[in-house]
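Posting this for the archive.
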Amino acid sequence: MKRVQSSISSFLTGPARKKTPLTSTQLKAVTVDEVEGNDLPQEKSGDEENSDVDRDGGSVSQHVVGGCIEPARFAKWQEGREWLTLSIDGSVKCTACCEVRGLGPNTDERLRIDPAFVNGIKAKSAKKLNDKISKHGKCQSHAICISILQKRHEEAIERARDVSVGLWRKKNEERLKATACCIRTAYMICQNDLSFKMQPPLIELQQLNGVDLGSMLHSDKACCNMLMFIAEKMTSQLVEYIKKTSVKFSILIDESTTVSNKTCLIVYIRMPFDGEVCNFFYQLIELQSCTGSAIRDTLLETLESHGISKDMLRSRLIGFATDGAAAMMGRYKGAATLLREEINADLTVIHCMNHKLELAVHDTVKRITEASHFQMFTDCLYAFFSQSPKHTRELEVAASNLGMHARRIGRVFDVRWLSSSCTSVTALWESYPALVRFFATLAEDNSRSNIERAKCQGIHSKMTKWIFLIELALVKDALETLKALSLFLQRRDATAVQAHSEVNIAVRALRSMRLADGMNFKCLKEEVDSMQTFKGVTICQPNDGDRQKASAFRDRFFISLADNVERRLDDSGVIAACAALNHSSWPTDEDERMMFGDDKLVTIQKTLAVEVSDIPLLLKEFREFKSHGVQGDNLRQLFSAVSTLPVSTAECERGFSAMNHILTDERNRMNVSTLNGLLFIAVNGPDVRSFPAQKFAEMWIKEGRHAADDTPTGKPKRPHEVRHQSKLFAQ
């Protein structure tokens, strides 16, 4: 070990050279008599004599430095000029230039090191010597030498650090391996939403399979501690990345209640990473109050506790997305309004477009009576089966007799997003024959009560009417169109540039369905007109009144739906301006396309405070992009900022779903801080195969924590006992 340390030291200091210039300390030792004012030469001790002699045995003049000044004066010149030194004959040298000697590929051919400061320089007067020293200190070659030495020093430190780390890892190889296995086991428990109490049996299983895991870090408490340690380090890594980069970012928040009846605020940060925009889970915070001011204060305090200051938010926060709750989006006291007042008046606030799409559909259901009646009928079916497992089993038997599978009937147009409503309508459409057979059987079953039989008879009569199937087909066509839009808005890579185009496509499709038949309506119409049946079920033929009602419902339903979607999702701010960046919105005429969107591009740049070299240059790059599809540097930076704007808070909903998988009824006593750490790992962490357990094991041990192979403390484990009756099978 001493030999290795000696090698490192000799490597850092470099090989010894002859006639090495003296340092300022050696110079002061040489001239101590003159500095103290002793004019007469005195007899020197052995140490003083050695201080005036270099490694070759030469001596330095005690009276003249550089041929013209006293050593005490030269010592003052050395202040702030650590590179200034003396040679044996009293000439002045530059240690940096002496050390580098040749610039080589570090500079151009005309630049070279001044040989005078390498060999030593003298002057006839102090002024001339000082001028030469000052000129040399400002010259470019000297500055390059200083930077070369600094780089060499940093590289030497880095190499020494790598050598030291390598030696430490080699010495603690077995400890790291066992500790990494325990940490990886705990990480797998978190990734699979398992209880901390699974750590001991999983450790025991691996030990039975021949894996050496030491004798510590096997308990459920150790599992919790390791996971909180991992979450803390990952959070620090995310915060450091946010602080060291200069890119714009957005914040997404939402509020929900856990199974422990605790109100929590979930926070996501949307920002680019490695060329792709990512939604990072940031924090789950317990709210003491659900007012807008409390939400704003809690959010800012959490950010500042991690070093994300208000000044950073003012310069880099460009988007804030949330749902339409009054505490979030209130005009006067909402969290978004208060955040604008606190941080930036131009902050882009985004009301989740998925929530606005739900509100548009609910507006139509309230306005169109037939749609409201359809919702009440599906709610009746949902209650009939959800409240009686017996009815569900009987429906499955009826479907099995028909050679099909009965799907679960859900609610339509409820508080959940449109994908759920579309799934419920699809289940009703596909299970239609089984439902009709089921209700017909129950209506004729004398063992049922009269009320139940009458109810089943009424449902059967409703479902076999032509106008009900027409309403079902029209609603299914509309929901499938809106589902495609909803699913797009839920995508992680959905941007404001694409959102406006997708909304326009959905609105045009809804308007066209007033006259053009959708896929489901067309299929129903062809089968009913040709066979008077639908999926093998005889349908009651419509009269003129039914046809008029169906035509009126179709016209009013699709017009209302298209108008409400367009009204709710219309945005006059930067989100709407981003549509100009989408090539699908550009005019077909070349002259019109050349100047199209310039004003909106400038609006985006000013609103998002995107730093560009010049506005005319940005417009020029935009025109080249429209003509040739090539993005310049300024336009690319603007596109990066625009892609950071979220269009939905679907990521927050995914976070709450992951939270509900972790915080089950059996774990409802878990603290919010523990839940936050587990949620951070579950959402942001890599899979078990990609998890760097060795790195976290190294950090764990270096912080003074117990390794897996340390001697255990506390009470010994209870010996494993086999139940007496199990001994029969253990033999």
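Strands lie at 84-86, 92-94, 249-257, 263-273, 276-286, 317-322, 348-351, 533-534, 537-538. DSSP finds 35 helices and nine strands in the chain.
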